[in-house]
Structures are given as C-alpha cells and as structure tokens.
Automatic annotation (TrEMBL):
UniProt subcellular location: Secreted
Keywords per UniProt: Glycoprotein, Neurogenesis, Repeat, Secreted, Signal
Main location as per UniProt: secreted
GO cellular component: extracellular region
Record GO terms (molecular function): heparin binding
Signal peptide start and end residues: 1-23
Role, per record: Secretory protein that plays a role in various cellular processes. Acts as a chemorepellent acting on gonadotropin-releasing hormone (GnRH) expressing neurons regulating their migration to the hypothalamus. Also promotes neuron migration, growth and survival as well as neurite outgrowth and is involved in the development of the olfactory system. May also act through the regulation of growth factors activity and downstream signaling. Also regulates extracellular matrix assembly and cell adhesiveness.
Keyword Repeat among record annotations: yes
GO biological process per UniProt: nervous system development
Protein name as catalogued: Protein NDNF
Keyword Glycoprotein in annotation: yes
Lineage top rank: taxon: Eukaryota
Length: 559
C-alpha cells in the first residue's frame, strides 16, 4: 500500500514540479527547459482519455499504468472501463484513492503542500483495489463514485510483448463506441453439410437502431475461436502475414496483400487470408443475422466468430464463438468397366467431385483409351492403390500399362472447368483389335488463303499409313457463331448428328510414307463473302469416328 501511495502521487508531484518551473519568471537554461517539457510529456502520457479508445503496448513483465480523475460535480459520478486483450492473457486492475475536492484542486494548481501527505498514516485507509482481472477475454468494469477520486489502471503481461485497447467513459449511457450485444450472445449452428455450415444469431440492438452504420462480420478458421477482432488480426499477422488493421471492415481492395483474396458478391464482402494453418475468412454480410458459409472442406472442424462492428469507429463486440465439423464426403459410386466396352461419362462442373471407374485385369498388358468429347478432364489411374498415371487430357489419349493378373485399376475422372464435360472410356488387352483408328500426328485442318475464290476453298489434312475412310462436312455460319460453334462442338459425335445437306464427300486414302500422307480437297459451290465451318471425320476398323479440329474459312467477297 505504501508503494501504491507513492505511485499515485508520483505523477502529481511531477506535475507540480513542472508547473512551478512554469510559474516562476526567472531565466532558465536549455536543459531546464527540456526537463520541464519532459515532465509535462510524462504526466500527460499517463492520463487516460475519456470517451476514446486507447491502445496500450505492453512489454513482458513490465507494468504500465494509466490515471484518470473523477471530480465532485454531481451526486453520483458513473464511469465504465473496457479492456480488450489483443493476444495473450494479461493482468489488469483498478486502484482507487479517495481524496477531497480541495486536495485534487490544490494538486491541479501545483500546491506543494499536497506533497507533505504522510504515506505511512494515510495510504492504508485511502488506497484500495476495486477490481482485478487476469485472462484474455474482453472485460468491462462499471463503477460509481460519490466523491472525488484518483484512479489508476495497471496492466501487466507475463507471457510476451503484446497490446490491449482500453476504453474509458464517464457518460451515463455507455456503449457509444462499442455496439451492444443481445442478452443471449450465442451463435447457433442450424445446418451442417459436406461443404457448408449455416449459422444464426440474435440481433444486436445497435444493428436494429443504426442499421446503416452497424453490421455483422464473420470470421472462419480451423484453429480456435477468437474473443475479439483485434485478437484475430494479431493471430493472422503472427502467422507470417502483414494484415492491415480491421481489413475486413475497411472495404479497401487496394490494401490487400498477395496472400489475400477479396470476393464481393450479393452485397457481401469476403476476404480469404492464406496462412500456414489454413484459410482464415473474413465475411461481412450487413445486417443479416443468418448466413450459410460456402466452399468448406468435408470432414473438417471449423470455428466461427461473429463480430458486430461500428463502421464509423471500427470498434466491435464479439458474440460467443462456436464450432462445427462438416460432414464426411460420401464414398464415390464406383462403376465397373467391362473389357472392350466403351462407356461415355458425363461430368458436372464441380472440380471437387470425382467419377470413379474400376477394372480387374484379366491380362498382364492392358490399354486404357480416353476420347474427350467436350470440356477438359483430369484422369487419374491407380493400380492396387498406387498412382500409375495422372494428367489432363485433350482429344484422344492412350495409356498402355503392364501388371499382373487380377490387378485392380481405379480410374478417377473430374472436370477441371466449371462447365459440364464428357469423355468416352474403354479398357482392353493390348493385343485387342483397336477400337479407335490410328491417328495422324495432328488433327488440324489447314486452309490455303491463296486458293480461296468467291465460290470455293481448298483444305488439307494429315492421314496415316493405314487405309482409312475420311468424310468432309460443311456448315454455313454467321459472324458471331465462329467461336461458339467451335467451343460447343461435341468431338465424340459422328456424322449421324449432321444434316444430310452438310455432307460434302467421303474418300479413302493412306500412304506408307508418313511424309506424303497428306490429302487436299477443293470444296465448290459456295457463296461469296460467307463463313463456312468445315469438319473432317476419320473412321477406323470399328467405324467409330474421330473428329478433326473444326476449321472456319470465309470465301472472297469479289473475284
């Protein structure tokens, strides 16, 4: 208590010494002037501002003290102190020194007589600890003083350097800075899916009263709940990321770091922070008090925190956090592949969804054949649980594999685009009669600009050493159909899907010398200045066609 008495009066003594130096009209040296300035700066740095949030930085094991005075001016003087730890647990307390109004007035005027108080006699009866707390929760003390008093707040961090925010107000109606929480501040989990969790919470009175300036923000992570927004931001920074303060609330895209992704849709702001412990998402959804969190991973535990935020001051209040585990992904349906049989698989545009095929080998050497019909597909083949092939395919692709009898092969297919796609799949022994024709080095169709006329064009394509059938088809298209026709083309469909009027000709050819396995064809009877889409179909021994890449050519307007 003697030490507390000393600590209380130290700033008052410094203030009085500084004011004495200021009041005595005698010349002073530069060192004396510097001392006087330092005394004033030291004194004012310890005063806690009323009605304003103050950030206090703490060094490990070094206490820090702030002071405020309540003077007699009314029967009861209320005050509220709110402390928000932004990292590790801290210790903080409030000490009160009861003093008469005349004493405080004399101290403020710099009366040296106030220094002559006997600490051994008066400290035990006048200094008391009225509040003490240890932890990392946001804590508020509400007090009422019926007399003039000097108060000291003492802060101590015993774990590491950290910082806290302190808010002091002496107004009768607290909460001007911080939004109010409802009586029941819990977050309810009202729905859980494989990749989604739906949350609901009671409305904050502040949101109902000041909808335009107050909103809800959600924090999602895989580590633990956070008791304040500043604690969450501190944790993100400590993970190796530089995060601007209250980034989720500032709505400023130019402040984003390279590890951050901002998504703005349906009036909701989402910021995804890529950190070492996984993603930390910050989502601000306005005044809605229900929200479905999308794009989560299956069978994963997530922690959810809701903050009600004052957009004018960035001050926030935290609901009681909750957690939930998403459902396990159901085992994918596995389709048995039959030897020599072709199946066509249609995949939806969900990148995380796999389509599984299984085959038990009846031969040591087998061959998988994939013909991509539309879109882009990733193929993954595993033999007895070990990956033997994995790649993105386009066009026609063969995988020749060697193993043992009764080896189990699992083929997994997935779309790598957001649109639907399809692929034909076949498995057969290596000596099996090939289902698809032998392919040339390129499936491109070439046109000759110099040979174009007003009513004809000349095209060329590569053949093979195998005598095969080639059919040419044409289609008149509009200017804006060019890109769409090529993008939407089903590369697995054959001439049976074409109108009879589009057929130009069919012919057989081959050449033992691959360098000379090229054929040309001049298509006549075309309209001047018109776009045409040309297709070539190659038929193999099984009459399953392979479609060359479509070619668009425009005839000359005048000749």
């Amino acid at each position: 208590l003697k030490m507390s008495w000393f600590l209380f009066y130290l700033p008052l003594h410094l203030l009085m010494a500084a004011r004495l130096c200021h009041s005595i009209k005698v010349p002073i040296s530069s060192s004396q002037r510097s001392l006087r300035t330092n005394l004033f700066n030291f004194y004012h740095s310890l005063i806690l501002a009323d009605g304003k949030e103050t950030t206090v930085h703490l060094l490990k094991d070094i206490p820090k003290r702030y002071y405020f005075i309540l003077e007699e001016g009314r029967a009861l003087a209320p005050f509220t102190v709110t402390v928000t730890p932004c990292d590790v647990p801290i210790e903080w307390s409030i000490l009160e020194h009861k003093a008469s109004a005349s004493f405080l007035e004399r101290a403020a005027k710099g009366d040296p007589g106030t220094q002559e108080v006997s600490t051994s006699q008066k400290a035990p009866s006048m200094v008391s600890t009225i509040f003490n707390y240890k932890g990392n929760s946001v804590e508020t003390y509400m007090g009422m003083s019926s007399h003039s008093a000097l108060y000291m707040l003492e802060f101590l961090s015993t774990e590491r350097d950290t910082h806290v925010t302190v808010y002091l107000t002496t107004h009768l109606i607290p909460g001007r800075l911080y939004p109010e929480l409802p009586v029941d501040p819990r977050i309810d989990v009202i729905g859980v899916g494989h990749t989604t969790v739906t949350l609901s919470w009671k409305h904050s009175p502040s949101v109902l009263q000041h909808r335009e300036n107050i909103q809800y923000c959600l924090l999602v992570n895989e580590k633990h709940n956070y008791k304040s927004l500043c604690a969450a931001e501190t944790a993100i920074r400590s993970s190796g990321m530089k995060l601007p303060p209250a980034l989720a609330l500032s709505l400023s895209p130019h402040l984003l770091e390279p590890q951050q992704v901002m998504i703005l849709s349906n009036s909701e702001l989402s910021i995804i922070n890529k950190v070492s412990s996984g993603e930390v998402r910050q989502i601000c959804m306005g005044a809605k008090n229900t929200y479905t969190v999308p794009n989560l991973s299956p069978d994963t535990q997530y922690y959810f925190d809701i903050f009600v935020v004052n957009l004018l001051t960035n001050a926030s209040a935290a609901y009681t956090g909750t957690f939930a585990r998403t459902l396990e992904e159901p085992e994918p349906k596995v389709t048995e592949l039959k030897e020599g049989k072709v199946i066509q698989v249609v995949l939806d545009g969900k990148p995380q969804k796999f389509y599984s095929l299984q085959y038990q080998a009846r031969h040591k050497k087998i061959q998988f054949t994939f013909q991509l019909c539309h879109g882009q597909v990733q193929v993954h083949i595993a033999k007895n649980g070990k990956t033997v092939a994995s790649e993105n395919i386009s066009g026609l692709r063969y995988f020749s594999l060697k193993g043992k009898l009764l080896d189990t092969y699992l083929v997994q297919l997935r779309s790598i685009e957001e649109s639907n796609c399809s692929v034909k799949v076949q498995v057969a022994p290596s000596f099996h009669k090939p289902l698809f024709p032998l392919l040339p080095e390129s499936l491109k169709i070439k046109s000759f600009s110099k040979l174009r006329t007003c009513n004809s064009v000349t095209i060329a394509w590569l053949g093979t050493q195998e005598d095969s059938k080639y059919c040419v088809y044409k289609k008149k298209i509009e200017e804006d159909q060019d890109w769409r026709e090529q993008q939407s083309a089903d590369r697995c469909s054959g001439p049976e899907s074409r109108h009879k009027s589009e057929k130009v000709l069919c012919k057989y050819f081959h050449d033992r010398n691959l360098q000379r396995a090229v054929t040309t064809e001049t298509i006549r009877g075309l309209n001047a200045g018109t776009l045409y889409l040309f297709d070539v179909y190659l038929f193999g021994p099984s009459d399953i066609p392979v479609r060359y890449h479509s070619k668009v050519v425009k005839t000359r307007k005048s000749c």
